[in-house]
Amino acid sequence: MYRVFEALDELVTIVEEARGLPMTASCVVPRGDVLELLDDVRDALPGEVDDAQDVLDHRDQMIGDATEQATKTVADAQAHADQLVTSARSEAESMVASAQAEADRLVTDAHARAEQMITRAQDDAARIGQQAQEQAEALVTRARAEAERTVSAGRAAYDAAVADGQHEQARLVSQTEVVQAAHLESARILDAAAAESDRMRQECDTYVDATLASFEETLTGTLRTIGRGRTSLRTGGVAEYR
């Protein structure tokens, strides 16, 4: 590259020292020397300059090719992006549909379990009610039997006392005080039998009432459980049964 600048300096010197032509701005230079210096300049120029000139000569074509390639690249990228968006949208819709189907299945299963639990609770309530009713009827039957037995025993005691009194009265017809005592004893025995019968009947009624109250509490708890199950079924949840 140094030879280029040296040859150019020599050409400037030749032109400056050349003999001028009269009445003109032209001058006479040695052709051979000038051509030799120009050849030196041409030989000294690097090949990259020539390549750069070729690039400049084909600049428009290269710019057009680059623009076309860039346009094609952008179009391919846009098509690929559209494909990715379409695929992602399709996958998202599939996932949403699967999630919705799973949610519907879970809700259906929850409703079915709630229905089963309510059915079992109703069956248990009916069974408990039947058992309680049978127990209550059995208790009432036993209480009535016991009351009737007590009344019968009281009547038998009364009849025996009356018979004894009558016998004693016949034997002691002349003894007024003894007869009065027999009457009083008979009345006392009868009153005692009636009081015992009333006491046993009251105890029986108390026992039956306590049993029915316990049964009522059990039924109330069962009805609350059924109510919670129905409420949960209407609201779409699952109730906790205790």
Automatic annotation (TrEMBL):
This is DivIVA domain-containing protein. It comes from Nakamurella flava.
